[in-house]
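Lab channel / #folding
Pinned by the channel admin:
"Please post every new chain as: sequence first, then the structure tokens as a reply. Keep commentary short and put observations after the output so the thread stays searchable."

First post following the new format, from NK:
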Amino acid sequence: MSRSAARGFLKYCLEHGVSVCPVYAFGEKHLYANAQGCWGLRHWLNGFGIPTIFPIGRTCFPLVPRPKPLLLVVGSPLQLERIPHPTPAQVAAAHAQYVAALTALFERHKHEAYGEGEASGLCLELW
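Reply from TO:
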């Protein structure tokens, strides 16, 4: 996903004057595994826009997530002003504000989710 596509939801929030809440789910990565292998074929298919993710949940029901604990945290809403036709700079500013709020939310709750030892070296990675 390109940076501009990642910012798309914030463009709509600005156009309609909708507030947005940062939300993070700790432990989500343990709900599914992703089948590995066939990298050449998978990269080739990705070149055509065909996703090659094969999620595996429970053994008998692979589309059902594994029973793992989740910690879902919701931050305070970001009040965005209504801008009928936001410029790319305004969308980028709203995106930076959202990323800062999401990062602060992650930092505030990572010790609760992972414990003091494991959480000390963790930082939020945004792609």
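NK: Residues 32-67 form one domain.
TO: also worth noting, The first strand starts at residue 23 and ends at 26.
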